[in-house]
Amino acid sequence: MFDFSFSELIVVLVVALVVIGPERLPKVARTLGHLYGRAQRYVNGVKADIARDMATEEFRQLQQKVQAEASAVEQSVQRATQTLDQQVQQLNVTVVKPLHDAQQQAQLPPQSSAEPSSAQPRF
Known about the structure:
The chain contains two helices and no strands. It is mostly helical. The chain has one domain (6-95).
């Protein structure tokens, strides 16, 4: 975080020893260590919150993309289904229905004339 060389650190310790005194220096150093630890935990907590928020936003964007793709696929399937239904209807009209009508006509008995037909001829 801060760029201190070893010589600068020695100068700071010597000044602290003169200003604070040798009796209170360990207590002050311990207090500064605790404060530094708290500051690090606070900074790490803020970083974690930011990372969590970013991950949540990325997840929302991914979810929106997936929903858009799913919607596009659903529409494509619906169009394909409609096209297939239209082709089946056209097939029924052009091929199956005339074939079915021809089969029905082949199965019908011949039309009877005005005279009743009998097995024996009339004289």
